[in-house]
Structures are given as structure tokens and as C-alpha cells.
Amino acid sequence: MTAIRLLLVDDDPLVRAGLSFMLGGAADIEIVGEAADGSEVEELVDRVHPDVVLMDIRMPSVDGLTATERLRARGDAPQIVVLTTFHADEQVLRALRAGAAGFVLKDTPPAEILDAVRRVAAGDPVLSPAVTRQLMEHAAGTATDTRRARARERIAALGDREREVAVAVGQGLANAEIATGLFMSVATVKTHVSRILAKLDLNNRVQIALLAYDAGLLEEDGEGGH
């Protein structure tokens, strides 16, 4: 089994040491580097080629949001999990919109952080339905008519089944749950997700969820059901 190559980014050396101790002991995790600021991330990524970056959101020089945007703008970007002390704030939302695959709180139990790293490395969503709802509620406070119009324009490129899958992803459901709810195979769900990502030029499922919310699809689903 190939170990997941993990890069730790946090300005607090004690936090980095704790994460390294907690995560480095797992047989399937290899800590390949540490950075104290977002300004160091791109050079480190080029040097150590991580599969996943665990990225602190608040750092003194270049913050995790900027570092995430820079990394995800590259064609060979690793997956990024944002590390934060807040459940839902504007910086976390912006990091997710920029392409971070999810976020974990700094006080999250070690086993859950490990699970998040493994899931992101495997291409699975990190956000639970409860956290997704909380994020969407926060996003409602930052939504604009222009954003909704742009989102609806992009969503219009999807077929009916792709649209249904996008709504289910927005609800925080895993592939198996989507397959059961929409009466299709897990393989078909994965195909639809891949097509949605390609058609809409998105990086991951979290961006699908945010776009579905911005377009108002989750509100329509709640009002009308299936």
C-alpha cells in the first residue's frame, strides 16, 4: 500500500509538532514536509510532491486562503484540507470556493483528522451533511443576485440527471447514498460527478455543492422534493 504523502502548513510550531505526532504514526500516512507560512507552500509542493496539504487558514505573511488559491490554480495541485478554529466563516468559504476539498477544526479528534486526510486522498467528500448545511446557511448571508445568476447560467450546462446528482452532492451525500436515492449504480454516480466537474470546470465535490447552493437548487429541492 502506497502511503499518503502529507504536507503540514501552520505558523504555530506546537500545532505542527502535534499534528506530525498524531498523523505521522499512521501506517498509511507519510509526513513529507512542514511549512510555517503560505509563502513557503508552492516551493515545498514542487520539492516533496504531497498528495494532501493540511493548510492553516490564518498565517501572518501569506494566509492559507491565498496559498490555496495559488495551488489550485496549478494543473498538478494536491488536495487541500483547510485547518481552522471556526466552523463557518468567510475565509473558509472562500478557500472552499477556491478548490479546497474540505476543512477540519483544530480541536477535531485525531482519528477524525486522519479520516479526513484519507477521504480527501481517495477523492471523497470531507464535509458532513450537518457541516454542509451550516456552511450553506453562512453562504446565504454572503449571497448576491449576481452570484445566483452566474451560478444558474453555469448549472444550465448540466443534463437532468447531472443536475439531480449535483443537488445530492450539495446535500452532503456520499456516492452510495446518491446511488440509492436516485436508483443508479455507484459507478454511474461517479461518472456523473466526473462529468459535472469537467463541464463546470470545478475541482471537487465541495465546489459542486457550493455552486448548487448559489444557483438555488437546494432551496428548490427542499420545497418540491423528488
Write structural notes for this entry.
The chain is α/β, with parallel strands linked by helices and 226 residues long. It is built from twelve helices and five strands. It has helices spanning 13-24, 41-48, 64-72, 90-98, 110-121, 129-140, 145-155, 160-170, 175-182, 186-200, 205-214, 217-224; strands spanning 4-9, 29-35, 52-56, 79-84, 102-105. A five-stranded parallel sheet has the order 2-1-3-4-5, with helices on both faces. Strand 1 (4-9), helix 1 (13-24) and strand 2 form a beta-alpha-beta unit. Helix 6 crosses helix 11. The termini are far apart. Residues 222-226 have low confidence and may be disordered. Residues 5-121 form the Response regulatory domain. Keywords: DNA-binding, Phosphoprotein, Transcription, Transcription regulation. Residues 151-216 form the HTH luxR-type domain. The modification 4-aspartylphosphate is found at residue 56. This is Response regulator transcription factor.
Q: Taking strands numbered 1, 2, ... along the chain, how are they ordered across the largest sheet? A: 2-1-3-4-5
The overall average pLDDT, rounded, is: 86
Radius of gyration: 17 Å
Q: What shape does the CA trace take? A: globular
**Count of beta strands:** 5
Number of helices: 12
Main sheet overview: 5 strands, parallel
The end-to-end span amounts to 41 Å
- String of helices and strands: EHEHEHEHEHHHHHHHH
Which secondary-structure class do the elements indicate?
A: alpha/beta
β-sheet strand percentage: 5-15%
Low-confidence stretches: 222-226
How helix-rich are the residues, as a percent range? 55-70%
InterPro entries: CheY-like_superfamily, NreC/VraR/RcsB-like_REC, Sig_transdc_resp-reg_C-effctor, Sig_transdc_resp-reg_receiver, Tscrpt_reg_LuxR_C, WalR-like
Organism: Streptomyces prunicolor
Protein name: Response regulator transcription factor
Keywords: DNA-binding, Phosphoprotein, Transcription, Transcription regulation
